[in-house]
Amino acid sequence: MDLLRFITAGSVDDGKSTLIGRLLYDTDSIKVDQLETILKQSKNKSEGEIDLALFTDGLRAEREQGITIDVAYKYFNTDKRKFIIADAPGHIQYTRNMVTGASNSDLIIILVDARQGVIEQTRRHSIIASLLAIPHVVVTVNKMDMVHYSEAVYNDIVLDYMKMAEQLNIKDVTFIPISALNGDNIVKPSANTPWYEGETLLNLLETIDIANDINHTDPRFAVQYVIRPQSEDLHDYRGYAGKVVSGVYKKGDLVTVLPEGIDSEIEAVEINGEEVDVAFAPQSAVIRLKHDIDVNRGNVIATQANMPQVSQEVEAMLCWMDTKPLTPGNKYLIQVHGKTVRCVVKEINYQLDVNTLQRHENISQANLNDIVNVTIKTASPIVFDSYESLRANGGAILIDETAFTTVAGCMLQ
């Protein structure tokens, strides 16, 4: 059974938490004791109604204000698939939280209030989805019950969003008219929208093809640990444990260990302690090489026919996540998979306006939630691909060396 990671996004009060609560409730994914607690806390309990948003709004401040502040993760499964849901906050000041939740998502659900249509926050979240190269976008037009399930209202929103999607080069977009509160088109088709011939949200989530989203043509293996048992029966054993970030690996492949650039050949590939014919993304595996060479955590093993970039200077799009501003000359740590090196931000090239896509140059600093393009100089070479061409090997984070906290998410160029 495969796993789908998806995130919900939208403006404040668009119904993100209610939608997730409805999915969990209608798929019987809520434990009895949790359901009893929510029933006691529901605002409409006197009328026998459940406040579905309480299933995800776990912080006290969230429940008091009726908003989502932090990213809430929920897990559930059906007979067809497992799911990890990230419920992202809608407020502008929590953009960094939304970026964090979306960075590993296979799919994003963008909610649009049927009464409001496509608004500024819809555009902001769509731009972020485009920047993060999320493969699948589902636009759910929520609160259709408040516009009397009007087909005309729904069609106008679809047309408006498609114009924006073309501008952002978002290719895979699906539209579903729903009412998260009433459950229309969430798990079962709704009689209130006879004009809608598409599938329900749950059916889409269960059946959407994500296998083709994984790159199996550009082999990248990130070494996480060197295995040297040095026991009597495994005296000469040396294996490199890690994750197949992308591509396929098999015995006999000619490979290069980066960033050092040392060539070798794969002697064996192991999974769960047994030799296998092939390992492919996103499996964890152990690779053994024919030659006794120096390989360490943070190295990347790539096939010689298709090599990533190796450089000490890289251009990146950053989402700044710290209250302390970013200014050129600041020193940090940059982490790409298991490799962490010191670096300095040489220059802020421009700031991206997430509402208009305009580039603002001559920027002296980046503040909390800003998205900027920067040039980074590293103390030693890093191995990467451009985020646009290979998302799995194009992401990184900046870390405050003193506090060891993440200050920015990076999309390497």
UniProtKB/TrEMBL annotation:
<dbReference type="InterPro" id="IPR031157">
    <property type="entry name" value="G_TR_CS"/>
</dbReference>
<feature type="domain" description="Tr-type G">
    <location>
        <begin position="1"/>
        <end position="220"/>
    </location>
</feature>
<dbReference type="Pfam" id="PF22594">
    <property type="entry name" value="GTP-eEF1A_C"/>
</dbReference>
<dbReference type="GO" id="GO:0016779">
    <property type="term" value="F:nucleotidyltransferase activity"/>
</dbReference>
<dbReference type="InterPro" id="IPR054696">
    <property type="entry name" value="GTP-eEF1A_C"/>
</dbReference>
<keyword id="KW-0808">Transferase</keyword>
<protein>
    <recommendedName>
        <fullName>sulfate adenylyltransferase</fullName>
        <ecNumber>2.7.7.4</ecNumber>
    </recommendedName>
</protein>
<dbReference type="InterPro" id="IPR011779">
    <property type="entry name" value="SO4_adenylTrfase_lsu"/>
</dbReference>
<dbReference type="InterPro" id="IPR044139">
    <property type="entry name" value="CysN_NoDQ_III"/>
</dbReference>
<dbReference type="InterPro" id="IPR000795">
    <property type="entry name" value="T_Tr_GTP-bd_dom"/>
</dbReference>
<dbReference type="InterPro" id="IPR027417">
    <property type="entry name" value="P-loop_NTPase"/>
</dbReference>
<keyword id="KW-0548">Nucleotidyltransferase</keyword>
<keyword id="KW-0547">Nucleotide-binding</keyword>
<keyword id="KW-0342">GTP-binding</keyword>
<dbReference type="InterPro" id="IPR009000">
    <property type="entry name" value="Transl_B-barrel_sf"/>
</dbReference>
<keyword id="KW-0067">ATP-binding</keyword>
<dbReference type="InterPro" id="IPR009001">
    <property type="entry name" value="Transl_elong_EF1A/Init_IF2_C"/>
</dbReference>
<dbReference type="InterPro" id="IPR041757">
    <property type="entry name" value="CysN_GTP-bd"/>
</dbReference>
<dbReference type="Pfam" id="PF00009">
    <property type="entry name" value="GTP_EFTU"/>
</dbReference>
<dbReference type="InterPro" id="IPR050100">
    <property type="entry name" value="TRAFAC_GTPase_members"/>
</dbReference>
